[in-house]
């Protein structure tokens, strides 16, 4: 590892090449209006995505109970995702997207401010990012076009937001 990587805690090029990645495929996608409350978003995620996906939470000022919850449910899949924060190095948690996990996290979110859980939220499956939400609570939510419109429609109805199809993110 080079001096720059050691100074900033970054992986070297060889290490990145060995780390599996999940990426967003440019092109048509669903654009959902931003939400100002993480609780309904979390509770509705299983409507949008099947089990087997991973919930990726980046940054945030997580209190002890939130950290302990996330650490106890760490996903074995540690794929790299393009970070929303470069410096300082962000704290990242990956959790299997299951009804039990998101309901537990939503219960914690009822007692914590949005930024205490995450600043950037993503969902991925294998090598494919299915949901991008940088600057959560302020920016729109982008969902991969491969997610069927019926699921997007049901999710948006459940959380009370509109959606549209866009050509590219």
Descriptive tags:
alpha+beta, 169 residues, disordered N terminus, seven-stranded antiparallel β-sheet, 6 helices, globular
Describe this protein's structure.
The longest helix is centred in the N-terminal third of the chain and has 11 residues. A hairpin with a 2-residue loop joins β4 and β5. Helix content is 31%, strand content 20%. α3 runs antiparallel to α5. The termini are far apart. The chain is globular. The chain has one domain. The N terminus is likely disordered. It has 6 helices and 7 strands. Strands 3-2-4-5-6-1-7 form a 7-stranded antiparallel beta sheet, covered by helices on one side. It is of the alpha+beta class and 169 residues long.
Q: Average pLDDT across residues?
A: 85
Number of structural units classed as domains: 1
**Strand order of the biggest β-sheet:** 3-2-4-5-6-1-7
Secondary structure tally: strands: 7
Order of helices and strands: HHEHEHEHEEEHE
- Termini, distance in Å? 34 Å
SSE-based structural type: alpha+beta
What share of the residues lie within helices? 25-40%
Using the CA coordinates, give the radius of gyration.
16 Å
Residue windows where pLDDT falls under 50 for at least 5 positions: 1-17
The main sheet comes to: 7 strands, antiparallel
The oligomeric state is single chain
What general outline do the C-alpha atoms trace? globular
Strand content: 15-25%
Number of helices: 6
Short description:
The protein is α+β, with helices and mostly antiparallel strands and 169 residues long. The chain has six helices and seven strands. The protein has one domain.
């Amino acid at each position: 590892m080079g001096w720059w990587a050691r100074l900033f805690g970054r992986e070297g090029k060889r290490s990145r090449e060995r780390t599996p990645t999940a990426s967003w495929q440019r092109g048509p996608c669903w654009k959902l209006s931003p939400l100002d409350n993480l609780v309904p978003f979390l509770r509705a995620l299983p409507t949008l995505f099947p089990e087997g996906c991973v919930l990726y939470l980046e940054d945030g000022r997580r209190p002890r109970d939130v950290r302990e919850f996330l650490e106890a449910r760490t996903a074995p899949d540690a794929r790299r995702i393009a970070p929303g924060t470069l410096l300082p190095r962000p704290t990242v948690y990956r959790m299997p997207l299951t009804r039990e996990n998101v309901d537990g996290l939503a219960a914690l979110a009822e007692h914590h401010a949005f930024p205490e859980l995450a600043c950037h939220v993503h969902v991925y499956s294998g090598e494919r990012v299915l949901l991008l939400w940088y600057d959560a609570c302020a920016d729109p939510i982008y969902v991969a076009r491969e997610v069927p419109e019926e699921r997007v429609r049901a999710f948006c109805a459940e959380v009370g937001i509109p959606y549209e199809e866009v050509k590219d993110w």
